[in-house]
């Protein structure tokens, strides 16, 4: 911050001196005048680039280490704004892409390459859980699985579906209830519980929106699958 302030002071001084010299027609060598102007612009450009915060993939707060995939995701907001899932600076699912829907939204990513395998959503309010169960069973080992709720993601969930999601590394899926907000990132074949999970209960006393809790967001770095 101190260096940035010094740059500002020096730039202002140089620019002001040059402008005053022109206004009051102070005689100054033309080359020297151009040098002053050039230096002031250089300082100004340096100030802009030096103080601009770096941007990391998916807009996460810090860069991921090597052999990790950056991700950021958010649940839906009530029944108005859909969830969003981003991996390696690629938005896989969002309302803008028009590929999200009521229920549980799922994105599958190759654990070795980071490439998108599939995106789907399953209506857990008015739909049937059977297609969701078949989808979960079809996921191949080594696949990164990202899930986010929108509106209601729990009503039609049964024990079989919850067990399959738990096997992906989820701990909150057993408690996921009507209109809860939940985001999760796990993997097929994971040996431990995933550290990437956020869950907020639907509670009329604490809900941010009428009938729905606030949005849950999550970001992190997923280790690349090694052979």
Automatic annotation (TrEMBL):
Residues 102-189 form the ILEI/PANDER domain. CDD domains: ILEI_FAM3C. InterPro entries: FAM3, ILEI/PANDER_dom, ILEI_FAM3C. Coiled coil: none annotated. It comes from the Eukaryota. One of its GO terms (cellular component) is extracellular region. Keywords: Disulfide bond, Lectin, Secreted, Signal. It is found in: Secreted. GO terms for molecular function: carbohydrate binding. Belongs to the FAM3 family. This is FAM3C protein. It comes from Crypturellus soui. The lineage of its organism: Eukaryota, Metazoa, Chordata, Craniata, Vertebrata.
């Amino acid at each position: 911050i101190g260096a940035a302030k010094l740059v500002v002071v020096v730039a202002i001084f140089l620019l002001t001196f040059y402008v005053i010299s022109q206004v009051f027609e102070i005689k100054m060598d033309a080359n020297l005048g151009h040098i002053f102007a050039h230096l002031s612009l250089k300082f100004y450009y340096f100030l802009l680039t030096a103080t601009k915060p770096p941007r990391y993939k998916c807009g996460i707060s810090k860069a991921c280490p090597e052999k990790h995939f950056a991700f950021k995701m958010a649940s839906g907001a009530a029944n108005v704004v859909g969830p969003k899932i981003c991996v390696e600076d690629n938005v896989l699912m969002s309302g803008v892409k028009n590929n999200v829907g009521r229920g549980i939204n799922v994105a599958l990513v190759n654990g070795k390459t980071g490439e998108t395998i599939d995106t789907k959503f399953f209506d857990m309010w008015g739909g049937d859980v059977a297609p969701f169960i078949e989808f979960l069973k079809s996921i191949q080992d080594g696949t990164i699985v990202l899930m986010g709720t929108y509106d209601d993601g729990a009503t039609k969930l049964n024990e079989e579906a919850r067990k399959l999601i738990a096997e992906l590394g989820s701990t909150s899926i057993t408690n996921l209830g009507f209109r809860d907000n939940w985001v999760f990132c796990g993997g097929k074949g994971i040996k431990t519980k995933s550290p990437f999970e956020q869950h907020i209960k639907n509670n009329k006393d604490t809900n941010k929106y009428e009938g729905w809790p606030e949005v849950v967001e999550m970001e992190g770095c997923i280790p690349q699958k090694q052979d």
